[in-house]
Specification:
heterodimer, A: mainly alpha, B: alpha/beta, four-stranded antiparallel sheet, 11 helices, 22% strand, globular, membrane (chain B), ATP-binding (chain B)
């Protein structure tokens, strides 16, 4: 079991962000992404940062923890921002040999840094506050109109649900096999790259064997219960939009237009 | 001197999240050469977490683990070498086989110890003999063996390191009665011949009644009972509270006593119970 908070780990709770319908959260996350890329001025970027802290507050998460979980992504974000500093043409501020730093470049770099951080943190909030099963159910309902276009939505969602169901089992099994091989003196992450890859064979081979075994067993079990495609299947827990979902949509629409208005200030 | 000694070991999962769980709470015990110790407890009692502390896979949040009198986490530089002395066999060990022949798979541990080829070969044969398989198995594909045979090959993979303590997590799970008896009997032989200590983790009381000298009962991360096998089994009420049971044969004696017959209920093996019941007939007749 992982002992630290990682990106995407669901943390059960009863905050307003937890209680929203997963469909609402998925759609609003999309809204938020578009909003982030529409924000152009300093004012609207600052507005986004304030919003982000408000969201974290409404999810009853600790801001420090949420940002700490994004830490591994920081090199990528900084690298992207730096590239832009050097490549945007405009009024030169500093130049050294072939490198030119321009005012516009600095601004673009800063903008990108804020946007990417806000984007990643914002998107991680949905996974902190929504269980994977709720997400899968929400996604299935949102995509269900596509069934008219002969997209096998229910089969896809069944596959997704099974995958999500077995990820924790596989990850537990992975840890157990690593522990077992370590107990026989195996060591990982030492020596040349080829040696390192080879050192994982004693873990990967049993893991694949077990994944296949599980798949066969599951296929048999599903067939024994007469599953034949998802057509006409009903749900035990159906999703319902509540008043708070409508409120959330209204608030987000208002915030969306505010961001655009702030672009002109 | 004790081979393993645990002093006030605490360990928690998911610290700082809503999943936080105290898995081990103030665990202390020691294991001497030649011991046959059983650790029993219901699912989720902390058994599997506990055995991961014995060979340094997990580090206690507080408390110490001593191996041959040295603190594992502060006085030992080469923690990997501990894993050759404290052999750990996990639950369903047959799922960890990976080589294409039985011989190569058993040799994985000894090879990691850096032994020469001659020595490795000798240990593989010796380990295979301990689990009751002959040399014809060496070249066979482990994935084509029966479940029981695969389990024995996997156990041999740990025996081949000649550990001074052998720790087994539910080694008889999923086996039939004969398979259980065979594995336990082979383990007992290994213990007597090699002088190694055995720690058996299980929730099956019948498994340990015959062989274990001492029993530790875990419940929700705490040591609830600890003592000789007979003394632990005499606490039927506490065991029941922990979701455990006494051996079937002890249950028979307890029922007899409840009916007012003068039997002793501390008999835990089949032979002892037989004597107890025969005595009843002699006295009665």
């Amino acid at each position: 079991m992982a002992r630290d908070l990682t990106v995407g780990q669901f943390l059960p709770g009863h905050a307003i962000m937890h209680r929203l319908d997963p469909r609402t959260k998925i759609l609003l996350t999309f809204f938020f992404i578009i909003q982030v890329f529409l924000a152009k001025s300093t004012v609207s970027l600052c507005f986004l940062i304030i919003l982000l802290f408000l969201f974290i507050f409404f999810a009853r998460l600790s801001a420090g923890k949420v940002f700490r979980a994004v830490r591994p992504m920081i090199p990528v974000i900084v690298f992207t921002a730096l590239i832009n500093i050097f490549y945007v043409p405009g009024d030169s501020v500093l130049h050294f040999a072939f490198l030119h730093i321009t005012k516009q470049g600095l601004f673009t770099g800063f903008t990108l840094f804020v946007r990417l951080t806000v984007l990643i943190v914002g998107c991680s909030l949905i996974t902190y506050t929504t269980s994977l099963n709720a997400l899968a159910a929400g996604l299935e309902q949102l995509l269900s109109p596509l069934a008219h276009l002969r997209v096998p939505v229910s089969e896809l969602s069944m596959t997704l649900t099974i995958t999500l169901r077995f990820l924790p089992s596989l990850s537990d099994e992975f840890e157990q096999i690593v522990d077992a091989q370590k107990s026989r003196g195996a060591f990982f992450d030492q020596g040349s790259p080829i040696r390192r890859i080879k050192s994982y064979f004693p873990v990967l081979i049993p893991l694949f064997m077990s994944a296949f075994r599980r798949a066969f067993e599951l296929a048999n079990a599903i067939e024994c219960r007469c599953y034949h495609g998802g057509k006409g299947r009903t749900k035990m827990n159906t999703l319902h939009f509540a008043g708070r979902d409508i409120a959330a949509f209204l608030v987000f629409t208002a915030l969306f237009f505010l961001t655009i208005i702030f672009n002109f200030i | 001197m004790a081979i393993i000694e645990l002093k006030h070991v605490h360990y928690a999962y998911g610290v700082g999240t809503s999943f936080e769980k105290q898995a081990l709470n103030n665990i202390s015990f020691s294991v001497d050469p030649g011991d046959f110790l059983a650790i029993v407890g219901h699912t989720g009692s902390g058994k599997s977490t506990l055995i991961r502390h014995l060979n340094g896979l997990l580090r206690p949040d507080s408390g110490q683990v001593f191996i041959h009198g040295k603190d594992l986490w502060s006085q030992m530089k080469d923690r990997r070498s501990v894993r050759f002395q404290i052999g750990l066999v996990f639950q369903y060990p047959e799922t960890q086989l990976f080589e294409d022949t039985v011989g190569k798979d058993i040799a994985f541990g000894p090879k990691n110890m850096g032994l020469n080829e001659q020595e490795v070969k000798q240990r593989v044969q010796e380990a295979l003999a301990f689990v009751g398989l002959d040399a014809s198995y060496l070249e066979r594909n482990p994935f084509r063996l029966s479940g029981g045979e695969m389990r024995r090959v996997a156990i041999a993979g740990v025996l081949a390191m000649r550990p001074s303590v052998l720790v087994l997590d539910e080694p008889t799970a999923g086996l039939d009665f004969d398979g259980r008896a065979l594995i336990l009997q082979q383990l007992e032989q290994f213990r007597i011949k090699s002088g190694a200590a055995i720690i058996l983790v299980t929730h099956n009381m019948d498994d340990i009644a015959e062989h274990a000298q001492r029993v530790i009962v875990l419940h929700e991360g705490r040591m609830v009972l600890s003592g000789t096998t007979a003394s632990v089994f005499s606490e039927a009420d506490i065991l029941k509270q922990c979701g455990l049971d006494v051996p079937q044969i002890t249950r028979v004696l307890i029922k007899l006593k409840e009916r007012g017959l003068p039997v002793r209920t501390d008999a835990i093996t089949l032979e002892a119970a037989e004597r107890e019941i025969l005595k009843l007939f002699r006295e009665g007749g």
